[in-house]
Automatic annotation (TrEMBL):
It comes from the Bacteria. This is Uncharacterized protein. It comes from Moritella marina ATCC 15381.
Length: 94
């Protein structure tokens, strides 16, 4: 099994466990940021903490098309966004 596949499976298991313990009123995403090599990070992005819809994504300069795709995401759907220096993989959790 490739390292990438193991990381994806581990990320999925982590996100499922985490979601079982979270209570959010609005949308919730789990975002994995891959900057290449060993520079990977994961975030929980909770719309309850936004000042406006998709605030976190706007601050990271997502394109209009990427913002539309993220906005239309359904629960458990995954979207990848390629930015200049990183790839963001988002899973809509709620």
């Amino acid at each position: 099994m490739s390292l990438r596949l193991r990381l994806q499976r581990g990320f999925h298991k982590f996100s499922q466990r985490l979601l079982a313990n979270l209570d959010s009123k609005k949308r919730l995403w789990i975002v994995q940021v891959d900057e290449g090599g060993l520079k990977n990070q994961s975030f929980i992005v909770d719309e309850d903490s936004f000042q406006q819809p998709l605030d976190w994504m706007l601050k990271r300069h997502y394109s209009v098309i990427d913002l539309e795709n993220v906005d239309k995401m359904k629960c458990a759907e995954m979207v990848s966004v390629q930015l200049e220096n990183a790839k963001h993989c988002l899973i809509r959790a709620k």
